[in-house]
Amino acid sequence: MTTTTAPVTLHPRTGRADAMLATLLERRRPGHSLEAPFYLSEDIFQADLEHIFRRHWIFVAVAPQLPEPGDFITVDIGADSVLIVRDDDMQLRAFHNVCRHRGSRLCDEHQGSLGNIVCPYHQWTYDLEGKLIHADHMGETFLREQHHLHKVHLRDLEGLIFICLADEPPADFEEVAARMRPYLAPHKLSECKVAAQVEILEQGNWKLTMENNRECYHCVGNHPELTISLYEHGFGAQPGPQNAEGIAQFEQIVRDSHARWEAMGLPSARIEELDTRVTGFRTQRLPLDRAGESQTMNTEVACRKLLADFTDKSLGGLSFWTQPNSWHHFMSDHVVSFSVIPLSAGRTMVRTTWCVHKDAVEGVDYTVENLTAVWNATNDQDRRLVEFSQAGVASSAYQPGPYSPFTEGLVEAFCVWYVDRMRVSLTASR
Ligand code: 3BY
Ligand code: FES
Ligand code: FE
Known about the structure:
InterPro entries: Rieske_2Fe-2S, Rieske_2Fe-2S_sf, Ring_hydroxy_dOase_asu_C_dom, Rng_hydr_dOase-A
Shape: globular
Order of helices and strands: HHHEEEEEEEEEEHEHHHHEEEEEEHH
Radius of gyration: 23 Å
Structural class: alpha+beta
Largest sheet: 7 strands, antiparallel
CATH architecture of the largest domain: Alpha-Beta Complex
Pfam families: Rieske, Ring_hydroxyl_A
Keywords: 2Fe-2S, Iron, Iron-sulfur, Metal-binding, Oxidoreductase
Strand order of the largest sheet: 1-10-9-4-3-2-5
Strand content: 15-25%
CATH topology of the largest domain: Naphthalene 1,2-dioxygenase Alpha Subunit, Chain A, domain 1
Bound molecules: 1-methyl-L-proline, FE2/S2 (inorganic) cluster, fe (iii) ion
Distance between the termini: 28 Å
Protein name: Rieske (2Fe-2S) domain-containing protein
Cofactor: Fe cation
Number of helices: 10
Number of domains: 2
Helix content: 25-40%
């Protein structure tokens, strides 16, 4: 591993080695994986939390996790715990899960239902809008209105819940939302129910999880279940005489499918803005192979009751990727969403949520086993790949390797976005 000779100065507040980080960011070699400290260093992990996860829009949940007034979930991002509740007017709200009395954690559970938010320590009580409504023994001069819960920014993008811990969140989210709404709205995720949710722990850095997600170079060799429904020519490939016909055929299928879907009111064209904006995103609706209905083992729908008012099972897969931490696949019968939560330099949680129409009946319209089979298998394969990468990066022999210009363009886009956002934020915080 190459080491830097730059002088190391500690950040006045965090005590971290920001100069070394700045040097590593500055000398990142385009088109290559990152240097080892980006995956291994706990200091850089803390910097990732500060500059990426506390300043950008983070995908944390789907609206069907909180269908009723009083439903809540908690989400931990580094040392910050966030409480998301649905209030009596059905509005989703997010608060720091921190009591305004002496700072106690308010809710310890990951999900549940509550009437008011009651602190377990001295029972200060907040309503679902975060207002302090009750606090005993605080005297005549105590002002309840100065002790409401601290809010966290929240956006519900057609059922996808994003939060931002920054005081001033990136404003371009509104534009991303406006662009994405026509793609997502027809699937009516907000009218779904959660059919299954699985959390897996990966012994690897969150960036390796994201990089792995941004390419399908590894798919043929590792994902026998996923590649049943995905067209191989959708993965990107070095063009040549051996695959010219296959690529041309695939492109024709995409054009024909897009024409059909667009005519049904389903926007399908690719939008590619992963590394060109603060709230990086990408979308595309792609046809699925074989029966072409869903990402299942037999490529047929996993749920007989289709989403929204769909009658056509063959709507392909609408994918939506966001920086820094999510990807989603919307099909005719279900939606599968992935949220990546960093835990430490070498540990990452991936939460996968499968949603079906809220009136679909388990055992009649779908089975959880069939619905989740492809992505449970694929997630486990990806976990192994991430763990292999983490192990290799930790070796003294590791050096940044070259990305394929044909199949790893989006991995590069992730790294470009990451390095750029870190540089900007690091400079601004000095
Ligand atoms: O399809 C996905 O979401 C990613 C990309 C390829 C491998 N991985 C399963
Ligand atoms: Fe919450 Fe005292 S810390 S009521
Ligand atoms: Fe994969």
